[in-house]
What does this fold into?
Amino acid sequence: MINDYQMLSGLQKVAILFSVVGESLAMSLVKGLTKTEVRKIRSTSRGMGTVTFSVKKQVMEEFYFGFLSEFDDKKEDGPIQPFQFLTDLNDEQLIALLDKEEGPVIAMILAQLEPEKRMLIINKLEPTLKGQVLIELGSLDDIPLEGIIEVGARLREKSTYLPRTAEFSRGGAKEIANMLSDMSSNEQERYMQTLQNEDSELYNAVKVFFLTFDDILEKFPGDIIRGLLNSVELDLLPIAFKGLDEEKVAELKDYLPGKKQAMYNEDLGAKPQPKREVDNARKLFVDAAKKMEQDGQINLEDILSGGEMVE
It folds into this structure.
C-alpha cells in the first residue's frame, strides 16, 4: 500500500491522478503528454497497487488546484485547499459541522483530520452511525474529484455559522441572540433559517432571547407597548409602522396620548420608505425593550418563551 506522498515520483503522481479522476479529465489537467508518456502512465497505474485516500487527496490538490491557481488573480496566496477551513475549527465546531451529515461525508472529513481529532469525532457518534463511518473510512479510494470539491464547498459554507453554535454549546444562546440583533433583517432571517434547518434545538433556544419588532407587537402587554411607543421619536413611528395593516396601525396609534395622536404624520406613513430606514426605526423599539430589561422593568425570556403575562 502506498501511504507516503513524499516518496512518489512525478510519474506516479500523474498515474494516481489518472486512476482517480479518469483519463479524460486528467488529460485536461496535464497537457502536452505524448502517446508514449500516456502509455507509461497507464502502465505505472496498473503496477502501483493500493493507494491511501490521503495520498490521493494530496495528489489531486497538487495537480487540480495548482492548475486552477494559474488563473487566480490571487495566485500569490497559493493553490486552493478544499478542506483548509477545517484547521480553523475547534473540537466543538468540528462536532457541530458533522452533525446530521451522512456517513460518507463524515468519513471524508475524518480522513482530513489528525488521529486525535478523528477519534474525538468518532467517539461522539451513535453506535450505528459509528459503524457505518468506519466502513466508509475503509472504502474512500475511489471518490470522484468533483465529489470532494462539492463536499468541501458545502461544508465550508456551513462552517460560517459554527462560531455561534460553539457559543451555544457553552450556554451562550443569549449571546447569539445579541449578535443577531446587530445584523440587518435579511441577515437575521438567513441565520435563523440556517439554525432552524441545522439544529432545531439551537434555534428554539436562541428564539427565546432573540427579540424582533414583530415579537414586540405580538407578545408584549399593552402597557409595555405604550411605554415603548412613547420612548421613540414621534416622526419615526410612521416609518416603523410601514408594512403593517391599517387595523394594526390604528391599534398602535390608540396607545399614544391624544396630543401625539394629533401630531402623528399621516403623510409620512403614506409614502414608500427604504427598507433600511424601516429596519432602523423598528430597531429603536427593540433597543428600548432591551433597555427596559436592563433596568429590571421586564424579563424578555418570560415574554418570548410564552410565559403567562398579567397586565
